[in-house]
Amino acid sequence: MTSDGSAAAGDGPMAAVDGSTAAMVAAPMLAVRDLRVASASGTIVAGLDLTVAPGETVAIVGESGSGKSMTVKALTGLLPEGVRATGRMELPGRAELAQGSSGLSGRAGLVEGRSGQAGRAAPTEEPAGPSEPTGRSRHAGSSGHVGSSGHVGSSGHVGSSGHVGSSGHAGSSGHAGPFGHAGPAGRSGREIDLAAQGTIWRDVRGSRIALLLQDPFTSLSPVHRCGEQIGWAISGRGRAERVARLLAEVGLPADVAEKYPFQLSGGMRQRVAIAAGLAADPDLLIADEPTTALDVTTQHEVLELIAGLQRERDMGLILITHDLRLARSRADRIMVMYAGRLVEEGPTALVMDAPAHPYTARLAACDPPITHRLPVLPTIPGSVPQPSSVGAECAFAARCAFAVDACRMAEPALAEVAEGHRAACLRPETAGLPVDVPPSPAETVPPPPAVAVPLPPAATVSSSPAETVPSSPAETVSPSPEHSGRGREAAASLFHAGEDQGIPASPLLSVEGLAKTFPGSAVPALDGVDLTIAAGETVAVVGESGSGKTTLARCVVGLERADTGRIDFHGTATGARRVQIVFQDPYSALNPGLTVGTSLAEALRAAGRPKSEVGELLELVGLPAAYARRRPRALSGGERQRVAIARALAPRADLLVCDESVSALDVSVQAQVLNLLADLRRRLGLTLLFITHDLAVARQIADRVYVMHHGRVVETGPVDSVLGAPAHEYTQRLLASIPAAD
Amino acid sequence: MSPRPDSTANGRSRRIPVVAIVSAALLAFVAICALAQEIIAPKALEQDIYLGVVGGGVDGHLFGTDQLGRDILQLSLAGARSALAGPVVVAVGSMLIGFFLGTYAGYRGGIVDMLAGRYADLLLALPAVLLAIVVAGLVGRGYWVTVVVLIVLFSPSDVRLVRGAVIEQAPRPYIESARVLGIRPSRIMFRHIAPNIVPIVVANLLLNVAFALVALSSLSYLGLGVPPGAPDWGRQLADGRQLLGDNPLAAVVPGVLIILTATAVNLLGDWLSDLLDRRVVAR
Ligand SMILES: Nc1ncnc2c1ncn2[C@@H]1O[C@H](COP(=O)(O)OP(=O)(O)OP(=O)(O)O)[C@@H](O)[C@H]1O
Ligand code: SF4
Ligand SMILES: [Mg+2]
């Protein structure tokens, strides 16, 4: 448990905030203190404070499993069974805020440095006034009393009586409590014990906090018309008009009310979900990866929509995302989570441009740039540890290039590095330093414990000159440099045994006039597509969802049959040796019931190759051969994707089609897999057809790019010229939708 | 990305619920009776005509006797065999048809799928009991004739169920990857798809055992199943009707046994499918 760390985190900066400055600060509309989430298997979120001011956008970023979703689920009482939260949340109504802070009703400046900082500092801070019995009891559940016993007494605060102590606060001058200015007790503001269960949450979710999820399919009911669903939160008469108004507000035609979710596109569904969330006029909107499932242009529109609605309503917004570019373009403040901990927070500009935690800096570096191509993408060696496995140490220490002994002695507390900017790092000054040294094929990463991702040596950016190779646990075979070099060469040579190494760049695949209309659909998915790929080339196909990219890929591998047009392979290979595919979702890419070895052996056998090549295949994608015995369940997403790639390589096909193969991965893992593909291409002379909606990814991997729109290729050419100087209006629009371009 | 801990594999879900334990115990008892009928109920068919019908507790007959003077307890224990054997054969038989036909139809689509669909429609349209009566008239009555008729009648819903589950699995990336890799369709069907639909198959199998038990008992009750005098709960129920005045237990005991057994099978099926489901889903 890390209660010490978080208590200290609260203590550190509070001394800096004295009563008088805090009094000037605008009231946060949400203040969460010491949120902890745990399941039977251990800690999930290890102590987190969070405030949101009206009209403010706070982004929570972090990689998969860092606890972002669990945090927001805890704030809405939606934790899955077996997962419990502790902590306290204050959630005064907007009306109450307006009254209590009448002098500060203007929103301007709310989101800037000082206000945010004080708001954050406040929740863990005891009132400055020495004699405040009520205030003290009010804080009974905070860090000093971790555990449910500390919260028992607090249940009395649940409900509108929660502000028993706040009148005392209001009276005391210069106190620092976030809601001290709130009116007399009995107003609608409330302090909620996050460990509470049951009906209290219905009220919170219904009218105070709205939650928007990644896939609106999961939050919308499939069997009810959209209008009905939007109307659920509206009581009384005039429901139909309000529904119509909400639909107009989110930019949907009125007839959507009569439709079912499945009749709408992803973007429209998300708009319906937004309308339904806004129906009860919430104070705070929490959006958990609201646009991850949408393509760039739709993503842009939905985010604009949310921003507009937020301005109008002065709504607070918590934006959960793994996309740093998006966080940068939308948020006032950014909170970076790592392994269930808050490692850095502060105003967006400070966090992004002057990160004070090495993790933030490394994560940002993994994000491929749209403007140019990097020879090798920076990666973070290793993988995110389970929050519960982190002891009294810096959670990032195992992967940090700047780690010193002190980092492994105690968990660093959040400490202020600049006004409103805090980081949990002992050496915040190192964060900005470069760690990228040119990769050398001999480098290996420390083999992490059982769950981690061993990187392919050639694709790794070593993070520290002093990095050593610790002795590996029995199961993870960490190839020594020489050994791994040999292994890879042997594996690579396998692919070219008896083949001509110096193949001329003749077309390997040519597609002509491909057209396909799915039955029951009015518009064609493919509308006369021409495409060629030369041997050894990497070609990217980009476009929004519904532009026909995936249909094209599926036709090429034979999973779909085109209505008209030709697909010609010019190689000599037949069947499985012509083309293989790697799909998007690593979690359904492998049969959950078969071990990795069985899956690979099966692929090898189908291609008429000996089973004994399983180990080489795994080594080729940078996994220890011992992984053959594992089941997919025991692999991370990145590792599964590697296995999927290994399986696709088994028949040694001429062409590898990647259908959004990295889009479900975290940036750091995405960088690893992109590096792996580039490396395989170099070593095996692989030809790649890479389908992606992410232009930056296309930039990194492809030689040439095809831009698709409505089933047609609208622009094609070398990746630098198409993305650098787009000729077609649609390409320009795609580029303009990228968050960083805002 | 770190692997999600298999949250369902530990903690509370490890404990087997009491309901499942009780159901399993009851079914085990019924199964033992069915297997060891000769040992457990050796005197099931012994008639004590001089005694006639007596109520519970008389002359060492715990539940009394029936119209032929047979001990209700022994007779009921002996009835376990026909209560279990037939329904299990019906459920397994119809699921075998459903499994192969449904998998094939679901995975291959096209003409096979269409024919399987027609077959299912046709059979579902026929009134089951009427068909059983007609078949009994043509072939002669008998327990196993009824069992075969029920297999045929139960199979269409199994075909549909399996077909649906297969259709749901077929577009998954790991199946499509297997197709692109050129793995044989039969292997894809039975090695990749089948294990992942096991939960639904097992659940339905047990559900069908319960249904078949009730169906067979009803047919016996109507005089279509077992020959007169054979130990069978449905038959006992029918015979016990006339004895309600003299020994109500003659009807109550087999009735309760039918209900208990059918319920236990159902509950066990629920639990088992939950368990398997989580195993398959856990990833
Ligand atoms: N139902 C559950 N029971 C127990 N632990 C869970 C459960 N669901 C998720 N977890 C664990 O909680 C941790 C945090 O998960 P969470 O979903 O909050 O991550 P996230 O940051 O939202 O990741 P992503 O970017 O993938 O959405 C993970 O380690 C995960 O394994
Ligand atoms: S320098 Fe130390 S405290 Fe800072 S991130 Fe690295 S390991 Fe953690
Ligand atoms: Mg999440």
From TrEMBL, chain B:
The chain crosses the membrane at residues 84-107, 119-137, 143-162, 197-224, 249-269. It comes from the Bacteria. Residues 84-269 form the ABC transmembrane type-1 domain. The keyword Transmembrane helix applies. It is found in: Cell membrane. It is a multi-pass membrane protein. Keywords: Cell membrane, Membrane, Transmembrane, Transmembrane helix, Transport. Its main location: membrane. Gene3D superfamilies: MetI-like. Belongs to the binding-protein-dependent transport system permease family. This is ABC transporter permease. It comes from Microtetraspora glauca.
